[in-house]
Amino acid sequence: VSTQSTGDHFLHRLPIPDQVRSRVTYHSRTLLNMCFTEYMFLPHSSTMMATGCLYDAIFALGSKYMDLRRTLPDLMSTFVEINKEELVVIHGKVRTLIAAHRTDLPPVDIETLQSRDKSPGPMHTPKDLLEMEGC
Question: Is residue 134 over pLDDT 60?
Answer without folding.
Answer: no
